Amino acid sequence: MPHTCQKIGWCLFLLAILLEIIKASFIHDINTAWYFAKAAHITLIISFFLICLSKEKVEDEMISGFRLKSIGITAYVFFVFLLIFSILLEVKPGFIFQNADSTLSAYLSELFLIVLPILLFVLYYGIFKRMLWKSDKHQAI
Fold first, then answer.
1. 92: DSSP letter
2. pLDDT in tens, the chain (141 residues)
3. Domain ranges of the chain
4. Do the Cβ atoms of 74 and 127 come closer than 8 Å?
């Protein structure tokens, strides 16, 4: 995607934060709050998608390599997280959750459908920007 998509993504990110602030401050109806939360969640995922996958101002082979390494590291972290989480749930779900039957399904749907995609985008973007920062720092020396 072109670099201008990154600017659009940051604007959408601010819109998602604004939706959450409006929901927390002014919305008292549970149904309306749910719609605001869903709108903020979808806006947040789209904004992270645009921010993470748009090109830098100067895109070269080194930056493409950093993108590939960042995706690889994010995949490793995701699979380790998934493995640890699966082991913890298999060993004894009652140890983690008081009411393992209903709470477990609600927690897993919340984690995998809402939180995990956002965390993956944030992790990828953080790793990518750190690699760029380290390369700029090393080139200056």
1. -
2. 787 888 888 899 998 888 888 888 887 888 887 888 888 888 888 888 888 888 777 777 888 888 889 989 988 988 888 787 777 666 655 555 555 555 665 666 666 667 777 888 888 888 888 888 888 765 654
3. 1-55, 58-141
4. yes
Transcribe 86-116 into DSSP letters. HHHHHH-HHHH-SSHHHHHHHHHHHIIIIIH
Angle formed at CA 5 by CA 121 and CA 40, multiple of 5 degrees: 55
Q: CB neighbours (10 Å) of residue 9?
A: 20
Any alpha helices (H) in the chain, and if so which ranges? Answer: 4-26, 30-53, 61-91, 93-96, 100-110, 116-140
Judge whether 8 and 50 are in contact, CB under 8 Å. yes
Are the C-beta atoms of 112 and 89 separated by less than 8 Å?
no
**Which phi and psi (to 5°) does residue 26 adopt?**
-120, -15
Distance from C-alpha of 101 to C-alpha of 104, rounded to nearest angstrom: 6
Q: Which backbone phi and psi does 100 adopt, to 5 degrees?
A: -65, -30
